[in-house]
Design goal:
The structure holds two protein chains of two kinds. Chain A has eleven helices and no strands. Chain A is an all-alpha fold. Chain A has a domain of 187 residues: MetI-like (MetI-like fold, Orthogonal Bundle). Chain A starts with a helix and ends in an 11-residue tail after the last helix. Chain B is α+β, with helices and mostly antiparallel strands. Chain B has eight helices and 20 strands. In chain B, strands 6-7-8-3-9-10 form a six-stranded mixed beta sheet, with helices on both faces. In chain B, strands 13-12-11-14-20 form a five-stranded antiparallel beta sheet, with no helix packed on it. The longest helix of chain B is centred in the middle third of the chain and has 18 residues. The chains are: A mainly alpha, B alpha+beta. Chains A and B meet through helix 7 and helix 8 of A and strand 6 of B.
C-alpha cells in the first residue's frame, strides 16, 4: 500500500495530541519523585498516597457536586433556550441569542472577575454555590449549541399529532418531545459536566475556602515532591473520562436508535 | 349519509400578513360524507384543513363542528383526528403504542385498551405488526398506523392531509380503494386534502375545487368532471379542449352557440350562471368526441381535420387534430379496442361530435 502524505500528517497530528497524555500513566507508576526518563522501577506508591489523601478526596467530592449541579441546571436552561430559539419568532431574538452565546468567546478571566465583584457587592459568601453559578453561566451556551441541533431536526408534526390525539401541550412535551430529544440532552449533560469538572479560572476566583479538584491540583504543583501524586490523580481522571464518554456514547446511541435516528451521527465518538 | 351538516365553514378568512390564504370560504360538509379539498399547492386547502383540526384559527369567520362553535378551541379538545402528510408516527414508540397513544386520557382498563388497539390494527390489516418499531415498517404500513391511530379515537371527522402523496403509484391506487372502503365501513366523515385530481375523483362523494384561497366549485366528482363551471376547473381536472364560441340565443336551461370550426349547437346552461357579452369559451373533453373512420356514416355532425400527432398510452391513443378555423389542434382520445386501426400523422380524419360534447365555461 502506498503511504500518502495526508496519512503521515494525520498520524503525526494524533501523536502530537496523545503522546503527552500517555506520559501521565507511565510516570504515575515510576518509582521516583523526579519526572524524567529513564523509568526507575514500578510502584503503586503514588496511588496509595492519593487513597490516604483526605484533602484531595474532599476537592474531588466538591468538584463532582458542582459538576452535577451545573450540568443538570445548565441543561434544563439549555432546553428552554434551544426550544425558544429554534421554535419561536419574537422581537429581539437575534440579539438575545447573541448575548446568551457570548460567554463562549468572552475571556474567562473577565467573567470570573465580574462575577466576583457582583457577588461580593450583593453580599454573597463565596462557596461552592457561587462556583456552580459561574459554571452554569459558562455551560449554558454549550448546552444550547448541542441541543439546538437536536431541536432543529425535530419534526413539528409529531407534537401536532399528540395535540390532535387529545393531549395538552405539557403532556405532549413529556410524552413526545422529551423522549425524542433525549440523545441531545444526554450529550448536553456530558458536555456541561466536563466543562464544569475541569474549569479552573472561575472556580479559582469564586470558590472561597472549598477548593475544587483543578484548584487542588494547581496548589499541589508548587511542591515538586507532590508531582507524582498529581500524575496518579491525572491518570485516574483520564481513565474516568474515557469510561464516562464510552458509557454516555453507548447510551446516546441506544436512545438515538430508539428515537429512530441514525445512531452513528451527532455524537462525540 | 344524511343531509345534516357535520361541519359548517362560515365565511372563513385567514390572512398571513398581507397574504390572504383563505378568502371568505363557506362550505357545509354532510355527516358521513367523503369530502375532498382539491387544488394546486398554495390554494389554501391545507390551511382550511388545519383550521378544522384546530392548529390554526381564522382571522375572521366561524367554524362549527356538529353545531358547536370551534374557533378558539384547541386541537386537543376538538372531535377531529388527523392523518398527517408525513404520517407523524412517533419514532420512539412501537406500532401498538402509537395506536394506543390517544387512549391514555380515556382511562380504560388494560384489557379494554389492548382490545381496542387490536381492533384498530385489524381494521387496517396491521394486527400482526403491533410489536414492530416504527422505523421497521414500510411507507404504506406507516400510513395504516396513522389511520388506525386516528380512527381508534372514534372522531366525528377524520382529516387526511395528502395521505397518499408519499406512496408509489401502485400502492397509491390500492390505498385509494381501501380508504374508500374503510370510510364506508366506519361511517365517519372523511375530509381529504389532495392535489391529485384522479384521487379526488375516485374517492369522493363531493369535491371542493380551490384556487387562490376560494372554493370555486363544489360538486360531485361527475359534475366536476363533466360540467366544470369555469375554465380554471376544467383546466385543472382532466384534459380539455378549449374552443371559442359566440352566443346566438339564450333560453331557460339552454344556450345556442356557434363554435368556431364546429358550427351551431344547443348546450345545457349551468344553473345560476350568467355569461357576460356574446363570446364564451366552450370546453370539450377528448373522450367526448370521436374520430369517424371513412366508412362510418352514422355521425351527422362531423368536421374534417388532419392528424398532427398521435400519443400512444396503451389503452388509449390521444390524437392532436388540426381543424380549419380553430387556432390550436384539438385533442381527441380513442380507446384501442380490437380492430381499430392506429392513425398516422398527416392522415385526413372526420371528428364526430354532438351538443353533449360541449360544456360552456365562464
Amino acid at each position: 500500500m502506498k503511504i500518502r502524505p495526508l496519512s503521515i500528517y494525520a498520524f503525526l497530528y494524533l501523536a502530537f495530541l496523545y503522546v503527552p497524555v500517555l506520559f501521565l500513566p507511565i510516570f504515575s507508576f515510576n518509582d521516583s519523585a523526579i519526572v524524567a526518563f529513564p523509568i526507575q522501577g514500578l510502584t503503586t506508591r503514588w496511588y496509595e498516597n492519593l487513597w490516604a489523601n483526605d484533602v484531595m478526596q474532599g476537592a474531588l467530592w466538591n468538584s463532582l457536586r458542582v459538576a452535577v449541579a451545573c450540568s443538570v441546571i445548565a441543561t434544563i436552561l439549555g432546553i428552554c433556550g434551544a426550544r425558544a430559539l429554534t421554535r419561536y419568532h419574537f422581537p429581539g431574538k437575534g440579539g438575545m441569542a447573541a448575548l446568551i452565546m457570548l460567554p463562549l468567546v468572552l475571556p474567562e478571566i473577565i467573567i470570573a472577575i465580574s462575577l466576583l465583584v457582583v457577588l461580593l457587592q450583593l453580599g454573597f459568601n463565596l462557596s461552592l454555590i457561587s462556583v456552580t453559578l459561574g459554571h452554569i453561566l459558562m455551560a449554558v451556551p454549550f448546552s444550547i449549541a448541542v441541543l439546538s441541533s437536536s431541536f432543529e431536526g425535530f419534526d413539528r408534526s409529531l407534537e401536532e399529532a399528540s395535540l390532535d390525539l387529545g393531549e395538552g401541550p405539557a403532556v405532549t412535551f413529556f410524552r413526545v418531545t422529551l423522549p425524542i430529544v433525549a440523545p441531545g440532552i444526554l450529550s448536553s449533560l456530558l458536555v456541561t459536566f466536563t466543562i464544569s469538572l475541569d474549569e479552573f479560572i472561575v472556580a479559582f476566583f469564586l470558590s472561597g475556602t472549598e477548593p475544587t479538584l483543578p484548584i487542588y491540583i494547581w496548589s499541589q504543583l508548587r511542591f515538586t515532591a507532590k508531582l507524582p501524586d498529581v500524575l496518579a490523580l491525572g491518570s485516574l481522571l483520564l481513565l474516568a473520562s474515557v469510561v464516562l464518554l464510552s458509557v454516555a456514547e453507548v447510551m446516546r446511541r441506544r436512545a438515538a436508535k430508539r428515537a429512530g435516528a441514525d445512531p452513528a451521527s451527532g455524537g462525540f465518538l | 349519509m344524511n343531509e345534516r351538516p357535520i361541519i359548517e365553514i362560515d365565511r372563513v378568512t385567514r390572512k398571513f400578513g398581507s397574504f390572504t390564504a383563505l378568502d371568505e370560504v363557506s362550505v357545509q360538509i354532510r355527516e358521513g360524507e367523503f369530502f375532498s379539498l382539491l387544488g394546486p399547492s398554495g390554494c389554501g386547502k391545507t390551511t382550511l384543513l388545519r383550521q378544522i383540526a384546530g392548529f390554526d384559527d381564522p382571522t375572521s369567520g366561524a367554524i362549527r363542528i356538529d353545531g358547536q362553535a370551534m374557533v378558539g378551541v384547541p386541537a386537543n379538545r376538538r372531535p377531529t383526528n388527523m392523518v398527517f402528510q408525513n404520517y407523524a408516527i412517533f419514532p420512539h414508540l412501537t406500532v401498538a403504542q402509537n395506536v394506543a397513544y390517544g387512549l391514555r386520557r380515556l382511562h380504560l382498563g388494560k384489557a379494554e385498551r389492548e382490545r381496542r388497539v387490536q381492533e384498530a390494527l385489524a381494521q387496517v390489516d396491521m394486527a400482526h405488526l403491533g410489536a414492530r418499531r416504527s422505523n421497521e415498517i414500510s411507507g404504506g404500513q406507516r400510513q395504516r398506523v396513522a389511520l388506525a391511530r386516528a380512527l381508534i379515537m372514534r372522531p366525528k371527522v377524520l382529516l387526511l392531509d395528502e395521505p397518499l402523496s408519499a406512496l408509489d403509484k401502485k400502492l397509491r391506487e390500492q390505498m385509494q380503494v381501501e380508504l374508500r372502503h374503510l370510510q364506508r365501513q366506519v361511517g365517519i366523515t372523511f375530509i381529504l386534502v389532495t392535489h391529485d385530481q384522479e384521487e379526488a375523483l375516485t374517492m369522493s362523494d363531493r369535491i371542493a375545487v380551490m384556487f387562490g384561497g376560494k372554493i370555486i366549485q363544489c360538486d360531485s366528482p361527475e359534475e366536476i368532471y363533466q360540467r366544470p363551471r369555469s375554465r380554471v376547473v376544467a383546466e385543472f381536472i382532466g384534459g380539455m379542449n378549449f374552443l371559442d364560441a359566440s352566443i346566438l340565443s339564450e333560453s331557460d336551461g339552454l344556450i345556442e352557440v356557434d363554435v368556431a370550426g364546429f358550427g351551431r349547437a344547443e348546450v345545457k346552461k349551468p344553473a345560476d350562471t350568467t355569461f357576460n357579452g356574446s363570446g364564451l369559451t366552450i370546453g370539450a373533453r377528448p373522450e367526448r368526441m370521436t374520430l369517424v373512420y371513412g366508412e362510418d356514416a352514422s355521425f351527422n355532425r362531423v368536421v374534417s381535420g388532419t392528424v398532427v400527432e398521435a400519443s400512444y398510452y396503451g389503452d388509449m391513443t390521444y390524437y392532436s387534430i388540426a381543424i380549419d378555423a380553430v387556432d390550436r389542434p384539438i385533442v381527441v382520445s380513442m380507446r384501442n379496442t380490437i380492430g381499430r386501426r392506429s392513425l398516422a400523422a398527416g392522415e385526413k380524419v372526420q371528428v364526430g361530435w354532438g351538443p353533449e360534447s360541449l360544456v360552456p365555461l365562464t
